[in-house]
Design goal:
With about 260 residues, the protein is of the alpha+beta class. It has helices at about 1-20, 45-65, 95-100, 100-105, 110-120, 150, 170-190, 215-230, 230-235, 240-245; strands at about 35-40, 70-80, 85-90, 130-135, 155-165, 190-200, 205-215, 250-260. Strand 6 and strand 7 form a beta hairpin. Helix 1 (about 1-20) packs across helix 7 and helix 2 packs antiparallel against helix 5. The radius of gyration is 19 Å and the shape is globular.
């Protein structure tokens, strides 16, 4: 119970600091968000500017009109198959996120602004492929929490980590591990978590994905050193429930930086 209260307090503090509503009272149990994560695989050259302009002038404004956000628009700096851009869209339910493109196709102002990207031809494609996954926020981290630097357009980078598990049972156990103290260890080490999500639809399942924010690479490395040397982490990772058998079979780790149009 103490861990849950600590986590809830930390989340509420972050949310109010970002929204400027320090006098508001938090909801007792906020709804768990869903996330659509899009990866746009691109070629170097015109596709980069075309896709970024599409995000900035057409897609993100149109999604904002639907009441969605804040959106993450990010450039892959380190990871497989660059160049690539990521778009992360939080929403209240899976149906809303599943029907985004259908709703966008009904928005005439969006279609006008999106035309160079939306109507690109095979001779000059706007992208190579788009990979989309749908996630549900963890029960213990129900809302996206952008870093404070997002409001001031300050320097920041993001680390997005995906944990694949060898079975559904082991995957459930890894999610349980986050709720058994790992959130608190992240916060104590000075991390700024952005979201934690369980993959409902996507590739390489069962898996989960979470995102952390840092000022720069040096801070990232320093915070991970603190984390891995924390006595509570050593104790948790040695717990037989989480350590007797590998619960994570593969980790994908990418580093991202915000595009100018990113809202996180």
């Amino acid at each position: 119970m103490e861990r849950r209260q600590f986590l809830a307090t930390s989340l509420a503090t972050s949310a109010f600091a970002l929204a400027g509503e320090s006098g508001a009272q938090p909801a007792a149990t906020p709804m768990r968000e869903f996330y659509q994560v899009r990866r746009y695989n691109l070629r170097s050259g015109p596709q980069l500017r075309l896709t970024e302009d599409y995000f900035a002038h057409a897609l993100i404004p149109a999604l904002g009109k639907m009441g969605l956000g804040p959106m993450g628009a990010l450039k892959l700096d380190f990871g497989q198959e660059t160049p690539a851009y990521y778009l992360i869209v939080p929403g209240p339910d899976p149906n809303t996120l599943a029907e985004l493109d259908l709703k966008l196709a009904e928005d005439s102002s969006f279609l006008e602004l999106a035309a160079p990207f939306w109507n690109a031809t095979a001779a000059a494609p706007a992208f190579e492929r788009v990979e989309i996954s749908l996630l549900q926020a963890f029960a213990g981290w129900r809302k996206m929490t952008p870093p404070p630097a997002a409001a001031t357009r300050g320097k920041r980078i993001f680390q997005m980590r995906t944990y694949e598990s060898p079975s559904n049972g082991e995957h459930v156990r890894k999610v349980e591990m986050f709720h058994s103290g790992e959130f608190e260890i992240f916060l104590k080490a000075g991390f700024h978590p952005v979201f934690f999500g369980d993959t409902l639809v996507g590739s390489r399942m069962p898996c989960l994905t979470y995102m952390l924010s840092f000022t720069d690479q040096a801070e990232l490395e320093a915070k991970w050193d603190v984390f891995r040397n924390d006595p509570e982490w050593k104790k948790l990772s040695a717990d037989p429930r989480f350590a007797f058998d590998p619960i994570v079979s593969n980790i994908s780790n990418v580093l991202l930086s915000p595009l100018d149009c990113s809202q996180i």
